[in-house]
Write a structure and sequence with these properties.
By secondary structure, the protein is an alpha/beta fold. Helix content is 44%, strand content 13%. Strands 3-4-5-6 form a four-stranded parallel β-sheet, with helices on both faces. Strands 1-2 form a two-stranded parallel sheet. The chain is globular and about 45 Å long. The model has no long low-confidence stretch (mean pLDDT 95).
Length: 226
């Protein structure tokens, strides 16, 4: 199961895992066309597409009802508005619902399936590992803390959970390329994180049976020394 898998980072994760032999559940909310196009080109067979609104508890339960049982979970879906914009100011509740409460519910369901073995990866944010920030980053900080808190009780069930905290990857839909250039000035390596590298790290964490409870910065050095 990959939430937010129709485009951007989620789609690359879906392509990578499908190429590795996984049967992928592609979750999307509004990107139906992108989800269907992705489904058509994924290697392998048995992949499915499910629409659900993760800002609604009913939407999350509908996703779980349709998905059935799954052995791997990637919480990639998130909402993010331009910092300081009216949308961002008004979105505290939406950030909490989509970026934290929906992943939390999916993780609860995942752990309750009675799997012999399984693994989950949460996609968070490098800036959530730094002090301060606003409601969006708080939702990602909460997801980081949840990741760490679940590791020990999950280990007793032979389940693993980790998080990846990427630095700047792709320009947000609302931002011009010039803003991305400005953001990259804050990155010690002065370059964006490759989407393929995020997908590759997700793949590794899902396969590697000895890693759990880690928050891994993939951020070009943003959190170095913090």
């Amino acid at each position: 199961m990959i939430t937010g898998a129709a485009k951007r980072i989620g789609a690359e994760i879906a392509r990578d895992l499908a190429a590795a032999g996984c049967r992928v559940i592609i979750h999307y909310h509004t990107s139906q066309s992108e989800a269907e196009k992705l489904l058509a080109v994924l290697p392998g067979s048995g992949h499915t597409v499910i629409r659900a609104d993760l800002s609604s508890s009913d939407g999350v339960e509908n996703l779980l009802d349709q998905a059935g049982k799954f052995e791997l979970l990637v919480n990639s879906a998130a909402v993010f508005f331009r910092p300081g914009s009216p949308e961002d100011t008004a979105a505290a509740s939406l950030y909490e619902k989509v970026n934290f409460l929906a992943p939390k519910r999916l993780l609860e369901y995942f752990a309750g399936q009675g799997l012999a073995e399984g693994a989950a990866v949460n996609i968070t944010d490098a800036f959530a590992l730094l002090p301060g920030q606003g409601a969006y980053w708080q939702s990602k900080k909460s997801l980081n803390e949840l990741t760490k808190s679940l590791a020990l009780p999950w280990a007793e069930k032979n389940l693993r959970i980790n998080a990846i905290s990427p630095g700047p990857v792709l320009p947000p839909p609302w931002a011009p390329e010039s803003r991305m250039e400005k953001i990259l000035k804050q990155v010690p390596l002065k370059r964006p994180v490759k989407v393929a590298d995020i997908a590759g790290l997700v793949n590794f964490l899902l396969r590697c049976g000895e890693i759990t409870g880690n928050i891994i910065p993939l951020d070009g050095g943003i959190t170095a020394g913090s």
